[in-house]
TrEMBL record:
Claim: Membrane is one of the keywords in the record: no
Cross-referenced InterPro entries: GntR_C, TF_FadR/GntR_C, Tscrpt_reg_HTH_GntR, WH-like_DNA-bd_sf, WH_DNA-bd_sf
Descriptive protein name: DNA-binding transcriptional regulator, GntR family
Keyword hit for Transcription regulation: yes
Alphabetic keyword roster: DNA-binding, Transcription, Transcription regulation
Organism of origin: Klenkia taihuensis
Domain HTH gntR-type: residue ranges: 11-78
Amino acid sequence: MPRRREAPPGPTAVDRLAADLRRQVLAGELGPGEPVREEDLAAATGASRHTVRAVLARLADERLLVAEPYRGVRVTAFADSDVVALQELRGALESAAVQLLADAHGPRWPAAVLAPARTAVAALGALAGDDWPAVAAAHARVHTALVTAAGSPRITDAYTRLHSELLLLLVHVAPAYDVARLVAEHEAYLDDVQARGPVAVREHLAGSTAAILAARGVRGGGAAAAR
């Protein structure tokens, strides 16, 4: 008699609540520095305090939340120094991935290598310009696809760990932009990294950092305290 296949386990209460809270944070429904109180979350969702504590710990590990003595848990807020440090780390990882690709393929990479990143650019272009969180997520997928193309599990894992924090930074900033310009810039970027490697990465991210800092200045974000 054939053995009956067991269904894979479904999401746990922690998974479900973490996904919902992550969505609220990354949609900007909870602003930078806003408190996230364990007792309020438990009362609003009917979850146990144990479940809520596990959720808050998970999102703190993703750097979407920060827990401070005597201040409790709050949505992460970025100082300008945090922006620069995060972009520098991102740049180091993306440069390493691009160098591996250059070493393997020279100045013209096979179409199959770039296909996921080009598909991500096309998906970015299909979005409406008034949904900034969706645009920010699609933009991040372009860079993640490029890093993943290098085929280094360690670089990809380290880069992926920055994903939520980078999205939160972009959602809090919402710089002046239009989707068509972002698409054109990233189409050019995918050509540029083949020709100039890590130099193109550094220039691209330096421009990104400058734009983020300028947008924070317009919105008063540059005065925000670190976390």
